[in-house]
């Protein structure tokens, strides 16, 4: 078995295990030294997996939220309704993004997960402290929205579509 195959199996084994998986157990299972397993774990981490070492073995830190990017369009008057629609259904508006023809991708972090935060954001907009990025791109923009489940994101998508905000283009974020 090649190292890359072993690392794929190690990832699966740690993902599927209900308890931490010890390095000694992995070394024995794959008939390699404990040091080889330590090196494999380092390579797995470098590939983007968040493997945590505990005193009982390795565990995978898996995200408790899921994300989706929605392409939307609306007027300034509909901005608060759009944001409240998302947070009322259990979503968090993580950011706003636009694709500018000259400057490329522009992004601003929002982290709006309640009506109170939406209200504070809207107050900043109304007071002239800032203006929405969407104004640069004929009201088209993207929001990365996180939630506790795909079902919640599906509900948000349905409601945005129903209200006419959703532009039919969806991308998954892993």
TrEMBL record:
The organism's place on the tree of life at top rank: Bacteria
Pfam families the UniProt entry points to: 3H, HTH_11
Matching InterPro entries: 3H_dom_sf (IPR035922), 3H_domain (IPR004173), HTH_11 (IPR013196), NadR (IPR026043), WH-like_DNA-bd_sf (IPR036388), WH_DNA-bd_sf (IPR036390)
MF terms (GO), sorted A to Z: metal ion binding
Domain 3H: 71-166
UniProt keyword terms in alphabetical order: Metal-binding, Nickel
Residue span, Helix-turn-helix type domain: 6-59
Listed SUPFAM superfamilies: Putative transcriptional regulator TM1602, C-terminal domain, Winged helix' DNA-binding domain
Residue sites binding Ni(2+) per the record: 74, 82, 141, 143
UniProt xrefs under PANTHER family: TRANSCRIPTION REPRESSOR NIAR-RELATED
Protein name: Transcription repressor NadR
Species, as recorded: Dorea longicatena
């Amino acid at each position: 078995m090649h190292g890359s195959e072993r690392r794929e199996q190690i990832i699966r084994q740690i993902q599927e295990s209900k308890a931490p998986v010890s390095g000694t157990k992995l070394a024995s299972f794959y008939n390699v030294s404990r040091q080889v397993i330590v090196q494999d774990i380092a390579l797995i981490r470098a590939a983007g997996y968040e493997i945590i070492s505990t005193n009982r073995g390795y565990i995978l830190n898996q995200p408790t939220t899921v994300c989706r990017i929605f392409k939307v369009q609306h007027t300034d008057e509909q901005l608060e309704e759009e944001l409240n629609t998302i947070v009322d259904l259990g979503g968090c508006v993580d950011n706003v993004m636009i694709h500018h023809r000259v400057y490329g991708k522009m992004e601003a972090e929002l982290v709006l997960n309640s009506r109170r935060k939406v209200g504070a954001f809207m107050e900043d907009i109304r007071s002239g402290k800032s203006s929405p990025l969407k104004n640069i791109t004929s009201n088209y923009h993207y929001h990365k929205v996180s939630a506790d489940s795909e079902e919640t994101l599906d509900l948000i998508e349905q409601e945005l579509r129903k209200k006419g905000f959703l532009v039919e283009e969806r991308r998954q974020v892993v």
